[in-house]
From TrEMBL:
Any one GO molecular function term: protein methylthiotransferase activity
Domain MTTase N-terminal residue range list: 27-137
Lineage, opening ranks: Bacteria, Pseudomonadati, Pseudomonadota, Alphaproteobacteria, Rhodobacterales
One GO term (biological process): tRNA modification
Tagged with keyword Zinc-finger: no
Gene that this sequence comes from: rimO
GO CC aspect terms: cytosol; ribosome
Domain of life (superkingdom): Bacteria
Region feature (Disordered): 1-29
Cofactor: [4Fe-4S] cluster
Catalysis: reaction(s): L-aspartate(89)-[ribosomal protein uS12]-hydrogen + (sulfur carrier)-SH + AH2 + 2 S-adenosyl-L-methionine = 3-methylsulfanyl-L-aspartate(89)-[ribosomal protein uS12]-hydrogen + (sulfur carrier)-H + 5'-deoxyadenosine + L-methionine + A + S-adenosyl-L-homocysteine + 2 H(+)
Name of this chain's protein: Ribosomal protein uS12 methylthiotransferase RimO
Length: 464
């Protein structure tokens, strides 16, 4: 039995799960996938292409003919973790191909690990395949190497990430993702919907929609229309969400900026006949206008409170998750206190928080008045104390209510589940520790909540 959040790091994807053992004589590739869910989707695409070419997927270093390390370069601490993972793969296997966000800095990687076979940047799928072909030639068996309809998945069978766009048009001073992944590039609506439909047909019960900026989806395509099920569907987050919600699975939106058109999504979330969950993951980052201005982000915290109130008026059950940065360069005690006061007013349901870090290439590095580490830690502690108290009060109010939950895992102690308010890995759990025999991952059941903690709930089954 596990409990969330493990470390309040909302940028981390679930640990990749590798299953099937390769056939005898099959060339085998290992995969280490680091970083966010968007990187996990890239890993799934790479492995799907390799499986289609006859490669097996090894769950360990010893069984792999070569290892791909999909890296993260979002923070300096993430870069260090990526370098450590590359070093481990070299020690344990010796034949290593590096890709992902940190791959945009090949000289930096080779300076630390000159023995790697190849380096490619993020979403450079063809270059990764070329590197694998050079290291381990393919040897397909068309009678045995059958590819699952949903492709190779690194998440549990019952939920899946669906990436709707790549890149970002924002120029936040603390972020280098646009430099690594480029400007916004949206997928056509019909392509997203076709992928999502295949996933649901293959047994996926929850679709997690991700991108760098989900609410900007389709802007680069001028919201063009595509034919889907004999009707025109715009490449727009409202149209896409409406259609995804008709596929028969839960649909959860991540990384949504609070643009005005986001309010068009709220009636869909309030519609019991649509699968779009009443859940918005919005990276507010801060609340003081001066801090937001130094971040080069929209400085409209007061209007954001009005938007939140309007969303809750339409959909009272909506769950709001966000992430914040404390200790940003120049952050004064007064600015930090404004953030705490804003939290009291906003009463967000789920909150993650980072202490500011310099990242090589970020413009924020050059800002004056960097906050000392001990003050960043002290502010993080105060922020999380407040967020934890808000979470505990909100969960306590759920005791005695009923809700639907999706089962993630069943062991000898309990069934670990999630409500519609909880995303995998980053939010809380609901545990069923009596009468859970016979439940399986992916089941959706109705429970009554009978106990609450700071982040997790406990309940008993009412209806299967």
């Amino acid at each position: 039995m596990t409990s969330n959040p493990p470390n309040l790091r909302p940028d981390l994807a679930p640990k990749a799960r590798l299953g099937d053992r390769p056939r005898a004589g099959q060339p085998n590739i290992g995969m280490v996938s680091l970083g966010c869910p968007k990187a996990l989707v890239d890993s799934e695409r790479i492995l799907t292409r390799l499986r289609a070419e006859g490669y097996g997927v090894s769950p360990d270093y010893q069984g792999a003919d070569a290892v791909i390390v999909n890296t993260c370069g979002f923070l300096d601490s993430a870069k260090a973790e990526s370098l450590e993972a590359i070093g481990e793969a070299l020690r344990e296997n010796g034949k290593v191909i590096v890709t992902g966000c940190l791959g945009a800095e090949p000289d930096y990687i080779r300076e630390h690990h000159p023995r790697i076979l190849a380096v490619t940047g993020p979403h450079q799928y063809e270059q990764v395949l070329d590197a694998v072909h050079a290291a381990v030639p393919p040897d397909p068996d068309p009678f045995v190497d059958l590819l699952p309809a949903a492709g190779v998945k690194l998440t549990p069978r019952h939920f899946s990430y669906v990436k709707i766009s790549e890149g970002c048009n924002h120029k936040c001073r603390f972020c280098i993702i646009p430099d690594m992944r480029g400007r916004l590039q949206s997928r056509p609506a019909h392509a997203v919907l076709r992928e999502a439909e295949k996933l649901v047909e293959a047994g996926v019960r929850e679709l997690l929609v991700i991108s760098q900026d989900t609410s900007a989806y389709g802007l680069d395509r001028k919201y063009d229309s595509n034919l889907w099920k004999n009707r025109e569907v715009r490449s727009h987050i409202t149209d896409l969400s409406r259609e995804l919600g008709q596929l028969g699975a839960w649909v959860r939106l991540h990384y949504v900026y609070p643009y005005p058109h986001v309010r068009e999504l709220i009636p869909l979330m309030a519609d019991p006949d649509n699968g779009l969950l009443p859940y918005l993951d919005i990276p507010f980052q801060h609340a003081h206008p001066d801090t937001l201005k130094r971040m080069a982000r929209p400085a409209a915290a007061a209007r954001t409170l009005d938007e939140i109130a309007a969303w809750r008026a339409i959909c009272p059950d909506i769950t709001l998750r966000s992430t914040f940065i404390v200790g940003y360069p120049g952050e004064t005690e007064a600015e930090f206190q404004t953030l705490l006061d804003w939290m009291d007013e906003a009463q967000l349901d789920r909150v993650g928080c980072f202490q500011y870090e310099n990242v090589a290439g970020a413009r924020s590095n050059e800002l004056p008045d960097h906050v000392p580490d001990e003050i960043k830690q002290e502010r993080w502690d105060r922020f999380m104390e407040k967020a934890q108290a808000i979470s505990a009060a909100k969960l306590a109010a759920k005791v005695g209510t009923t809700c639907e939950v999706i089962v993630d895992e069943v062991d000898g102690e309990a069934a670990t589940c999630r409500t519609k308010s909880d995303a995998p890995e980053i939010d809380g759990n609901l545990f069923i520790d009596e009468g859970f025999e016979g439940l399986a991952a992916g089941d959706i059941v109705t429970v009554e909540v009978d106990e609450a903690g700071e982040y997790d709930l406990w309940g008993r089954i009412l209806k299967r």
